[in-house]
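QA checklist item 7 of 12: single-chain prediction sanity check.
[x] sequence parsed
[x] length recorded as 158
[x] structure emitted
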Amino acid sequence: MLTLRPATPSDIPLILAYVGELALYEKAPEKAVATADDMRRAIFGEPPCAWVVLAEWEGRPAGFALWFYAFSTWEGRPALYLEDLFVRPEFRGHGIGKALLKRLAAIAVEKGCTRYTWAVLDWNQPSIDFYERLGAKVMREWLHCRVEGEALARLAED
């Protein structure tokens, strides 16, 4: 019933659809501005900077996970960072999200990663509860910092 597979270049429109659906769920659809060319370069460029695994339920597109590698200076080894995980509402409750998380955990172990991390919105209690049931620790003492847009351009100025 469930199939997990790596994305191929022909999956770019589906990946963009998932990103748009996730952005809508996270109440920020206007922030999803990636193009097909952006995704093609990121996922299938040389070298790639992100990877995607797709979930299909009974042959129908059900969800995806997109990740990249970070690095732990303290441990001197790579870390896997899950950027996006999304399962379409009509496919939830079938273990697809858990299967995607487990697949990425296996990849992290295979690649010698010391950790597997991701962020969750503070209002998304169902997801927080789900992640904690799987053994994830919500790192409430760590706050994400972001510089973007005009602030990024100003910071980059000489």
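[x] summary fact logged: The longest helix spans residues 96-110.
[ ] second reviewer sign-off
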